[in-house]
């Protein structure tokens, strides 16, 4: 009994099926490697067919993905409060007081308060010494009211929020991503962006109100203590110039800057944590990129609001 030789068409069909299986297996291995942190071999491209516009197209594509993610997260904040109020309350407590070793020292509240305490004391030292050289050290109270509200405390609080609650959110979401917990949420028909990102944005904006209030008070007290108790200036003189140049509208704009920076910090950090890849090393890299981007965005927000509100004049008149 003789066997029929393979025809050309049959051999081509078998080869195409084997090639498709190998491509499917390679794609699965590359996906698994990206989740676990192992390096996957890059796809080989024929020589001369590399995209020459990839250095321009890839950053634009990533910026578009980031913009779409942040827009979706911000648009879903109302839905997050309505659907997951318990998760929002839990996150407010976590962001304010921290967890583990951070909760032992008082969490984000103590860290932000300590940082603004040192910057307020720095205003007292530098301001009094500089003004005393020209004989107008009585205006140190003016510096305490002017610099703390408009520049020092908002900038310090923005950096502290990025380094504490922002970095923590990126690490949490990155760990959930590499452990496939976010994929599990999708399998349970839970919208992950709303549940993970939008709830953290709402919690960050709500938690920053008492945190920033304490930060502002610590800055005021540090400047007053350094000027009156350390340098011996009369408390009546300091309080006179401090109350004369401290306007309630400046405090409102300062809180607006803090709330805007908190929303930007949480939106940027949740994006990097949600899209973290490469295992634990990739999560650490995502935290570093998120902190860098959020600090840059916070400084830009502070500059934009300050220039928009006060312009070039500074909105005050000093005359004698």
Give a description of the structure:
With 320 residues, this protein is an all-alpha fold. It has one domain. The protein is built from 12 helices and no strands. It starts with 7 loop residues before the first helix and ends in a 10-residue tail after the last helix.
Summarize the structure.
The chain is built from twelve helices and no strands. With 320 residues, the protein is mostly helical.
Specify Rg, calculated over alpha carbons: 28 Å
Through-space gap between termini: 118 Å
Count the DSSP helices: 12
Q: What order do the SSEs take from the amino end to the carboxyl end, as H and E?
A: HHHHHHHHHHHH
Computed structural class = mainly alpha
Whole-number tally of structural domains: 1
Helix content: over 70%
User: Averaged pLDDT, please?
Assistant: 81
- Let me know the number of strands: 0
The geometry reads as elongated
Largest sheet: none
Unreliable stretches: 1-6, 28-48
Q: What share of the residues does DSSP label as strand, in percent?
A: under 5%
């Amino acid at each position: 009994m003789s066997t029929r030789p393979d025809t050309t068409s049959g051999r081509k069909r078998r080869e195409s099926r084997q090639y498709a299986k190998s491509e499917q297996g390679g794609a699965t291995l590359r996906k698994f490697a990206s989740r676990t942190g192992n390096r996957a071999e890059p796809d080989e491209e024929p020589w001369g067919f590399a995209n020459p516009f990839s250095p321009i197209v890839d950053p634009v594509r990533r910026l578009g993905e980031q913009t779409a993610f942040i827009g979706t997260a911000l648009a879903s904040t109302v839905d997050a409060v309505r659907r997951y109020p318990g998760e929002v309350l839990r996150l407010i407590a976590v962001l304010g007081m921290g967890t583990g070793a951070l909760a032992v020292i008082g969490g984000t509240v103590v860290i932000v308060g300590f940082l603004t305490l040192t910057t307020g004391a720095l205003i007292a030292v530098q301001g009094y010494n500089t003004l005393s050289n020209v004989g107008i050290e009585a205006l140190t109270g003016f510096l305490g009211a002017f610099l703390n509200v408009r520049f020092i405390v908002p900038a310090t609080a923005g950096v502290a929020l990025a380094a504490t609650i922002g970095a923590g959110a990126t690490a949490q979401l990155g760990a959930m991503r590499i452990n496939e917990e976010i994929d599990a949420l999708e399998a349970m028909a839970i919208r992950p962006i709303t549940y993970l990102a939008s709830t953290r944005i709402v919690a960050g904006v709500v938690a920053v109100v008492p945190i920033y209030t304490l930060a502002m008070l610590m800055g005021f007290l540090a400047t007053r203590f350094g000027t009156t108790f350390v340098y011996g200036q009369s408390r009546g003189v300091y309080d006179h110039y401090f109350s004369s140049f401290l306007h309630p509208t400046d405090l409102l704009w300062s809180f607006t800057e803090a709330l805007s920076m908190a929303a930007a910090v949480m939106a940027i950090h949740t994006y990097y944590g949600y899209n973290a890849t490469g295992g634990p090393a990739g999560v650490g890299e995502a935290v570093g990129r998120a902190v860098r981007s959020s600090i840059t965005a916070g400084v830009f927000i502070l500059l934009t609001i300050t220039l928009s509100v006060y312009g070039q004049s500074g909105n005050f008149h000093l005359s004698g």
